[in-house]
Write a structure and sequence with these properties.
mainly alpha, three-stranded antiparallel beta sheet, 5% strand
């Protein structure tokens, strides 16, 4: 089984387990705050935002932040590859697109080893210049940030992170949580479950999935 398929199945299984937890009202939480009873692991950015917004050091948030940092040091970006539901959402979205000879792939979706053969020039006639460059980079591994030998110390991710932290301090609430794609994914699942189990119809049923689709 290919690694990409196995990663998708793993993340999908986790989505199913958490969805069942929603229906059974088990209180297991989501990936933004998952755990049982008093033992919970909080989203690191969410935990940081809550402390910045409240201007208070919260022991549970600090512990979660420390645990997540330790996991990143030990396992790298395993969460992004094996647990995060966003790649699953992207795969579902791709099912509604017309199949092409060469799939037009975003740089953030390219994984090491996904493309190992040099593309046939005859199969790239329908691609734009930037898409051909992306395909060539993905083959050589130069288009993947995790494979790059040289990485800028600061890029757009760091500026976005800083912007969310500063805006949280200014407005006094976790701004990122309003647009967090992980939170929006589980929010959409919960809204759909409530629709079919309780007949709960609100504007959120349209707004939350719409924001996720736009992102």
């Amino acid at each position: 089984m290919k690694s990409k398929t196995l990663r998708t199945l793993t993340a999908s299984l986790l989505l199913v387990v958490i969805s069942i937890g929603f229906m059974l009202n088990s209180g297991v939480g989501t990936l933004s705050a998952i755990g049982w009873s008093d033992i919970a692991l909080l989203c690191p950015l969410g935990a940081l935002s809550v402390m910045v917004a409240s201007k208070t050091i919260i022991p549970q948030a600090m512990i979660s932040l420390g645990v997540v940092v330790a996991l990143i040091v030990l396992f790298g970006r395993a969460f992004c590859a094996w647990i995060c539901p966003i790649p699953v959402v992207q795969r579902i979205r791709s099912l509604f697109k017309r199949n092409e000879t060469i799939q037009r792939t975003n740089v953030s979706q390219v994984q090491p080893g996904d493309l190992v053969e040099t593309p046939n020039p005859e199969k790239t006639d329908g691609l734009t210049g930037s898409e051909k460059a992306l395909l060539k980079a993905s083959v050589s591994g130069k288009g993947c940030s995790s494979c790059s030998k040289t990485r800028k110390p600061l890029d757009s991710r760091h500026f976005i992170l800083g912007g969310f932290v500063v805006s949280t301090a200014v407005f006094g609430f976790p701004v990122f949580c309003l647009v967090c794609p992980v939170g929006l994914t589980f929010g959409t699942i919960l809204l759909v479950i409530r629709l079919f189990t309780l007949g709960d119809i609100t504007w959120s049923l349209i707004v939350v999935p719409a924001i996720l689709i736009i992102e």
